[in-house]
Each structure stands twice: as C-alpha cells, then as structure tokens.
Write a structure and sequence with these properties.
6-stranded mixed β-sheet; alpha/beta; 6 strands; 18% strand
C-alpha cells in the first residue's frame, strides 16, 4: 500500500488531538495501516499542537522536512509555519480564521497579513483549500467543531486513503453522544466548503 504522510497543526484547544483520534479510528475501520505521533508543546497556554499521521506501509511515524503529502492547518499562521514539512506536490487544507497569540493581544507583536499568508502557502503547494472554518463550525452549532469542519474538507480532497463514511462512523464512535449530531453537520459543511473552493 502507498504511504501518505499527513501533518496536522493547531493551537492548543482547537481540537487537533480529537481530529487525530477520529482519523486513526477511521483508518482502522478502513483496514489502512496507520502510525501516529503528537507534539503537545505548550498546548494549554495557546501553543502549537502538532500531529504526524502516516497512512500505509511505513516503518516510522516521523515526517521530515519536505516529506508531508498533506498539511491540515487549524490556524493560518501555524499552517504557514509548518510549510517546511511540505513540498511542491503537497495538498494544504487550512482554516483562514486567525487565532492571534497572546503577544498580539497585549500589543507586543503583529499578526501577519492573511492575504500574504495565503499567497505564500499557495506558492509552495500543489493544491490549497482555504476557507473560514470557524464560521462553519458556528453554523453547525459549536465553535469547538472546527476540527470536524476541517476533517470534512480534508476528506473531500481525496488526499488520504479514507472515505467520508469511514470518518463519520469514527465520529459517531469517538465523540460524546451529545456532540455527534453537531460534529456530523460540521463535517458535512467542511466537505461542501472544500468542494466549492476547489
């Protein structure tokens, strides 16, 4: 089986780890071999959280610079920061709603221009899907469903060897019953958004 390497980057609290668990469960349902690692960093203080997921036959879960086939970014500046993991054939899916760091909030830093971020990402990737995932999560009923919106967009690209049905089954088994309906709606909204931006 071919190997597909996925990097997921987010800010602490955005749901990266839950998204990774859903993808891992979906891969198991699909019979796709999977290896996964996570870097939590200063997640509880708004720091970066990174997951590396390797689908298919591989001996390592490490993804070196230039090796990622797919990058899923929950925050635009973090997506740009992770572009070193990508190459000219990579697919990038990113949320465009910024979550500026604390330094920006207290006036000690400046958040980069969003249009410039998108231009830089687009120049380094074969395909980019970019949209305001936070707005869609709120439309689904909960801003915390951003991770499911982005999973929907990721699956629509066809860049990883998992189907929408497999991910939905994983959402149903891995999320609390009270959130299943919202998460499934968020997934569908993200899937549709990716199709429209393509």
């Amino acid at each position: 089986m071919d190997t597909t390497r996925l990097i997921i980057v987010a800010v602490g609290g955005q749901g990266n780890l839950m998204a990774s668990k859903v993808l891992a469960e979906a891969a198991l349902l699909a019979g796709v071999p999977i290896r996964m690692s996570e870097i939590h960093g200063m997640a509880q203080r708004g720091g970066v959280v990174e997951s590396a997921i390797v689908f298919g036959d591989a001996h390592s879960m490490l993804i070196s610079d230039g090796e990622a086939d797919v990058l899923l970014g929950f925050e635009p500046a973090e997506t740009l920061r992770a572009m070193g993991k990508c190459n000219a054939n990579s697919v990038v899916v990113t949320n465009t709603a910024p979550m500026p760091p604390f330094t920006v909030a207290i006036g000690k830093g400046i958040y980069p221009d969003l249009e410039q971020i998108e231009t830089l990402i687009r120049a380094k990737a074969r395909k980019m899907v970019a949209f305001n995932g936070l707005a869609l999560a709120r439309e689904a009923g909960n801003a915390m469903a951003l991770n499911m919106v982005l999973l929907g967009a990721l699956i629509e690209t066809g860049a990883i060897p998992i189907t929408a049905r497999q991910v939905k089954n994983a959402i149903e088994s891995k999320t609390k019953p009270a959130f299943v309906e919202i998460n499934l709606k968020a997934f569908d909204l993200g899937f549709s958004a990716a199709r429209q931006t393509a």
